[in-house]
Design brief:
single chain; alpha+beta; two-stranded antiparallel ribbon
Length: about 160
Amino acid sequence: MTLMDVLVDFARTGRIGPLHCGMPLAEAEDLLGPGRPHPAIVMKGPDIDGYPYSWDGLRLDVTRRWVSGLCIDLQPGSTTKLPPLVLPASTTYEATVQREELITALDDAGCGHDVNGVLTFGQQSSILTRPAGVCAVFSLPGRDNHVPHRDRHYMCVMHKHAALV
């Protein structure tokens, strides 16, 4: 399994392995081990909403101790690490994913996608997958990003959020 496989599966299903929006944080931590809570959670306690727990390049947003968002963070030109539950035998993987590469992989997998006009502006572009509603955000590389093509868009983040009632 590769990082691209994980990204395509997330885009198609809205899940990252067994992780999904609406699951209890305790269940996610049982699967992943304890996460690294955002400093606001450390300061104000576990009942504060809207702050993430992190496992290297994986982030879970939490509302009332339930997972309200899933996110894979990438830094173009560097490497990323994901928990073994997400990417088995993960050490580190190249985190440079060009927009065209992801779109080709989505098309090959039969995963529909549209331009996300809300997050496409300036030097940034975004797509929203169908039917899972996963958002991928791309941008031109910054000066500190060591990438092969400075004029191409690279993925920064792929995320899904769900309103918990």
